[in-house]
Amino acid sequence: MITRTLGQYLIRDAQYYPVLTLTGPRQSGKTTLVRSIFPDYTYVSLEETDNRLLAIDDPRGFLDRFKSPVIIDEAQRAPDLFSYIQTAVDMSDAPGQYILTGSQNFLLMEKVSQTLAGRCGILHLMPFERTELEKKSQVAPQSPQSIFTNKTTDFDLLETIHKGFYPRIHNKAIPPEVWLPDYVQTYLQRDVRALVNVGDIERFERFLILVAGRTGQLLNYSALANDLGISVDTAKRWISVLKTSFLVFLLKPHHRNFNKRIIKSPKIYFYDTGLVCHLLGIRTIDQLQTHPLRGALFENLIVSETAKKYHHHRQQLPLYFWRDQTGHEIDLLIEDGTDLYPVEIKAGQTVSSGMFDTLHWWCQQANQPLSTATLVYGGNDFYTHNTVAVRPWFSV
After folding, report:
1. Considering only CA atoms, which of 54, 119, 48 is closest in space to residue 83?
2. Segment 167-182 mean pLDDT
3. N or C, which end of the chain has less CB nearby within 10 Å?
4. SS3 43
5. What single string gives the DSSP state of each residue in 288-341?
């Protein structure tokens, strides 16, 4: 089994909280992780009809079945169960009594916030990081100096983007073009129907494809709504579904203003580039090589890998972008306390002097040294250019 970075925090937090909740996208490896870390816990899945019916009809009797700590998989399938868990942990505040998992984050977190606030540690497991697949350890992220540090890789860039990071693709050696269509259909038929009243699943699937075509771009609800013939409120609600399913996340603009009007809309990214490739109809690496969104997919790879590192080290995402209305843009701003670190992301394998222009401009406006800036590119070399750190794609 591939070691997951988040595992160390599950072990740690089970000593602090009576309940742990592990969420994340479907098929990110949640069940495999908790069962491997807590092998002595009783395991029960509410996907199984008899377990679910008992938990719904007789929640107290369901919990009384277990005399040892228990893992309850897909716990959101029995919403009333959470109140009885609250009663149980209030009677015995011993740590590590219950591990709850679920892939429908909205339903799960709604019940956790209502009944288990203060009693529950909440962790998020995303698909693999590339460093996890290559069995490389990494310190908890802070500045780019602690993030973009990996020196070597056995992976190919385009293959990495195309394959993505869902565990089953790697553990079972399933081609992404075989596994991902089934994953999308399962997501649409199960999670989407459970999370929101979508009468036309085919239209929601088209919406998902439209969002994939906008990865790395500013999120424009009106444009999405117009392209699909839905209301802006529906577009906002459907984006919320994609967020709570951990398929996408929004990168907010940083508020720093240099006496110019700054863009206030977020940018949208997927947690997995392989899923984006599937939604865009990119079936081969050769197609990806010449695809017009290759640059956006490269940017998505770097931003999502950075985001996963924070999730898996149990940290809030201190990630932003910056853009003003005159065309200046920083692809990624990493906030560490009061310090800001600008990161420029370029898909090309050759570094040109023009790639540093915005970093120079931004650092000058922010009155901070160029040594705080990083350029991540599609090549293979580590070096410094006029004090700016130049890092290859596999450094993250």
Report:
1. 119
2. 96
3. N
4. strand
5. HHT-TTHHHHHHHHHHHHHHHHHHHTT----EEEEEBTTS-EEEEEEEETTEEE
The first and second tokens of residue 307, run together, are 């985001």
Let me know if 302 is exposed, middle or buried by CB neighbors in 10 A (0-12, 13-18, 19+): buried
Element (H, E) at 234: helix 232-244
Distance of CA 336 to the CA centre of its chain: 20
Residue 276 pairs with which residues in a beta bridge? Answer: none
pLDDT value at residue 258: 73
Task: Average the pLDDT over 124-129 and give the result.
Answer: 97
Smallest CA-to-CA distance from 127 within 319, 305, 298, 315 is with: 305
pLDDT digit string, tens, across residues 276-307: 999 999 999 999 999 999 999 999 999 999 99
Read off the amino acid at residue 182.
D
- CA 291-281-268 angle, to 5 degrees, is 75
CA of 60: how far to CAs of 63, 83, 198, 211, 282, in Å? 5, 10, 34, 43, 50
Per-residue exposure over 261-299, b if at least 16 CB sit within 10 Å of its own CB, e if not: eeeeebbbbbbbbbbbbbbbebeeeeebeebebbebbbb
